[in-house]
Amino acid sequence: MSARRLHRTMQHRRQARGQRGAVLIEFALAAPVLLLLIFAALELGVLSWVTLTMRHALQDGVRQAAQMGEANDTTRLLARVAEQSMGLYARLQPQITLVAAPGGHAVLRMECAWPVTTPLLAPFFPDGYHFEFAAALHDGGGE
Prior knowledge:
The chain is of the alpha+beta class and 143 residues long. Helices cover 57% and strands 19% of the residues.
């Protein structure tokens, strides 16, 4: 191997090593931002899932209680809602209000809060993510 060729090969290896170091530094700067965005997207997905699950639990629990004639039994009504919540009812400890109306009607209102942990989302939800739902009940006795 000639001296000139050897010099070119060594020079090429030095440049490649320098580029690898630059790529590593660029990755070290970009990775935290990328991970923060990924975790924020995941947390938004979890917030959406929790909201939909609790809405379904309230509506389906009320529907089942009304079909079985348990609309006036608050304990059974709440048990049906908790049963449909996929375990979130116990974790969220929702505030539930039952408001009776004339004619056998009632409205069940549920308020929940979910903690937000991602630093990117925390400024938008300083006290956690709060949501509420309502479902109407009719026991059939007023008709």
